[in-house]
Every structure is written in C-alpha cells, then in structure tokens.
C-alpha cells in the first residue's frame, strides 16, 4: 500500500533525524542551569499541548512561497515546501520533538549525569564516557524516545492534512487514507487501514515495554 | 614519589579555606561531624563540586594548576554509595574503566583482584552483591583507574568489622608499595588512625586542626565523643609471633590476633585507654605486655575518671582509671612554679616511675 510506505518513511526519517537533534540538545538542557532554561523547556514542550491545527496553520503560513522560509526552501531546492513530503517531514519533526526529547532529558538528568561524573572522575575522557558508557547505560530511554516518536508520527492526522494535503504517494499517509476511506463509505478498506494503525501502535508499545532494560542506577 | 596538593577551596556557603597537603607523611584522614564539609572538600578536589564554587576554587598538584575536567584531575572520588553499571558483571565493570581511563594502571589486575578479595565476585552482576561487596568493587575500580590520589568518602561503611580493618590496613600497604595516595573521610577517628599518617579536622566548613597524627590525635580526641585510645606502630620482630614498637627494637609486644598481609612492613594497632592498667611495680605474671613509662600529664574528666598520658621512650600511651584508683597509686610529685614543657603539667612533676600493663593485642 502506497499510504503505508509514505507513513513508514515519514516515521522512520522523523525518528532518525530527531535522535540526531535531540541527543546533544537533551544532554545540554539536562546540564544547563541558566535563567533561560524555562524558556527552552517551554519551546520544546509546546507541540505537546498545542492543538495540531494551530501548529499546522502557522507552518502552512511559513511554508507559503512568499514567506521567508518558503522562499528560502524554493531557492535551495526549486520546489515548494507546502504540500510536499519534505513539508510534512519538517512538520513531523516539530510535532514529535517533545516525545523524543523529554524521555532523554529525564534520563540524562537522573542517570546520565551521575554516570558521566563517575566515569570522568575514573579518568575516562568526557566524549568517550558519553558515547561508550553513558549512551549504552541510557539505552532504555533511547528505545522509549524512538518508539514514542515513531508511534506518534505514524498516528499524525490534522497537521499532515493541513500542511501536506492529500497527494497519493507524496503526502497521503495511512491516517489520511483511512479518513478518505471513511468519507467514501469504503468500510472494508477502512477496517484494513485502521487495523494496520492499531497493530503498529500496539506492537510499538509492546516493544517499548519488552526492550526497556531495568537500568536504574544501582545504589547501596 | 611524593605528591603535594595545595588548594584554596571556595564553597557556596562559607568564606572558604586553604590547605596544603604533602603525602610524604602518609595518607590523610579527614575527620569531622556530619555536615562539616568533608564530602564537599573531596568533591572539590576531584573537580566534581558545584560549578560556581569550582570556578572560584584553585587547586594545584605538584605546583601545576588544575584547569581541565575531572578525567585529567589526578584525584578519583569514591563515594560510599557505589554506582556500578547494573547490566554488566563485576569483571566488565572493572575492565571498562581499566580499558578507557586516560591514566595507566599503577597496579596489576591480578594484584587488585587478590588484594580486594574479588575472585568469587567476578562473574556476578551488581544486583547479586551485598552493600559491602559493592563497596569493595567500587574501591577496586578506583585502584584500576590508574590515578595517583584516591579520595575515599566513607568507603567501607557497609563492610563487617574484620573486613573494614583489613581494607583500612590495605591502604597503608598500597601507599607504601604502589605510591597510591589516599584521603579518607570518616566520622570514626579510629578508622582514620589505622591507615593515615596525617589528620585534618574540619568543622562547619572550616579547618580546625591539621598535622601529623602523633601530634594532633590527642587534641582531637579531647573534642571527640569517642573513647581515648593510643596508636602503636608495630614492626614484625625476628622472634615469631612477636612485634616491637617502631624505633624500639627492645620493646617486644605480643599482638598475635592482628591480621598480617603479605608485604606489610608496619602495622598500626589501637589500644583502648580503659584496657591499660597502671601500677607502680611491674606484674609480668599477670599481663602479657608491660611497658615502663613516665607520667606526662593527668587529665581529669568530668565523670570522676582520670586519663593518664604516659611516655615510653617516644611512644605515648593513654590509660584511663577512676580518680580513687589514681589516688591509691600514691604518686610522689614535685610542685613547680612554672609549667615549661610537655613533661610538666598542672604545676606538678611526677617522679615515680610507672608500668603500663595490657593484654595481648
């Protein structure tokens, strides 16, 4: 199914890009104690509480060919950001950001900082300690962040419809396909799409609970 | 090789203080009540203090200012709450640090395992270990980090008495044999006395006393709620099962219950003041150890007991008895006009020779 391929590509790319962005950002924010911390926390958490239509509305305005972002994108790639796969990918990155960022910040604040200090005082250089020791110790949160980000992107609907429209093979994801099938009263196909989404969500959560190690830091 | 640490410690809640440590005189014990700032001091030295306080502090090691991160700092901090990676075995936890540390190990893997008695634990995960075993692994990991200074914050608090005594004596051995320098934080003055050559007393983020243990121990004991005790440095004698006082090869001491570790050249034994009996005549038939002494000072305690400060050559011994027992000794004293030295106290000089008696250590 074309819509399934679009959904999977979107969710996979979103998670991969978000991990690259969120790991260093979450580490920085977990250690940052400046006065602007509440501002950064609000900015990162905002998509969690914002109605998707509000976010979609502003993104649609920003993606317009006469808006600065839309113009920049067009000058770089020669294509429109609105109603394109790149557009919905950018939207998904913003919308799913808190789902990936928050578990990582919590883990780095609680466990990561302790281990980082521990390994550093034992003579392990900072970056080696982070990549070889702290990240493997925090793998439970990496799994949680990836799973939540993937499942959340897969279930996006309002934001995709607003900034991506309904273009088959480009922006029509599985949730939008399901909406179309319901509108056309094609309940047999709607059942298939709904079951697929249900299955993916359930499997994601099962994987989350199975794979998360009991990694609480051990103290006497 | 000797190592000198000089530091100006600036804490968030006080004016700060300065210290200068030379490990030539042995390991350093940091003693003080809860909340005195002992752990804060150790964390500062390891570069793990509060960032603002760290910025305002200044630490030099052998004259070189420490400006880099904790991994380049020659001090490793060992907490009383060990943090091990739970998914890894004891071997993996230890090897991880040995392999990735910037510092080359001063002590071989096999020696660490043998000295810390870790062989039965190597295949186990941290969840399978007791609190004391976790502390042993954490201590071994610090040894394998290769750093020359190990800052121990109540490191053996979860160990049983015998194991704790063994580990404290091990610090002396490691200091002498591998030039690893230790700073031990403890509430227990006896623990510090067993393994340190110098002591720093700290109270309310201020240093109240620092010096070689022989010189400051008695002053600190007077402030402490712990009972009085003497510190005897013993050397193994040519006669089997016997020891002699360091610097006095003729003064033999029976101390057959003391554990001896291979390679140990000197042993510190603690003698409780209330286990020492004082007579004006020697009673060799009744006691295993009899030392002839000179009475230096009589300290009257609040509860009608007296503490006698006795001197056997240069070794100071404390003995505690009731005031009535002391009066029964009927000591001859000369009243003098002015106290001029340590051998004269309270305006009296005691001329009667005394004999300190105590059972085998």
TrEMBL record, chain B:
SMART domains xref list: AAA
Protein name per Swiss-Prot or TrEMBL: ATP-binding cassette domain-containing protein
Keyword Chaperone: no
SUPFAM superfamilies registered for this protein in UniProt: P-loop containing nucleoside triphosphate hydrolases (SSF52540)
Keyword tags: ATP-binding, Nucleotide-binding, Transport
Top-level taxonomic group: Bacteria
Organism, as annotated: Opacimonas viscosa
ABC transporter domain location: 1-229
InterPro entries (alphabetical): AAA+_ATPase, ABC_SmlMolc_Importer, ABC_transporter-like_ATP-bd, ABC_transporter-like_CS, P-loop_NTPase
Entries under PROSITE patterns matching the protein: ABC_TRANSPORTER_1 (PS00211), ABC_TRANSPORTER_2 (PS50893)
GO molecular function: ATP binding; ATP hydrolysis activity
